[in-house]
Amino acid sequence: MAESKPIQVLQLEVDPETSGGEFRIPVAGKAVKYLTIDPGIYDADDMCFTPLFVPRLPPLPPGDWNVGRISQDPATTERKPHFAKCNATKEILPAIDHLALAMGKKLLSNVYEATSSPHFNSTVVVAKFACSRYLTGKRPCTSASPVMGSGLDSSPT
To answer: Domain of life here (predicted)?
Structure first.
């Protein structure tokens, strides 16, 4: 049995040249699943408009997995999508649950002001989200630039 819809997209990244994409979706408010969509399965414009795109996804497979890949079904010559791979990873992830954060003002794409009572005593912090692991350390100074001088940083202006 497939996991129930509707699917909410937390973050998406679509390559307009190849029409491939990477998505993060929450499941049952307590887990995040990472989906990679192979190029050519869907149109890039369709993937960017989630109300049209999400209903076209194949049903999520059941079970304990958090990394999946949607590919063309090898049993057909049509561009029929199917889940080609699902993996459960056991690696230790950051200790702050992003679902416990209350998002505030958007500073940049995937960079927000955020608060979390259990972690920061309602202090405003900057949260940066990345769809893929390789993006987490990418350009941290660029992400911080809107914060400098905004009152959120501790540096003098």
So the answer is: Eukaryota
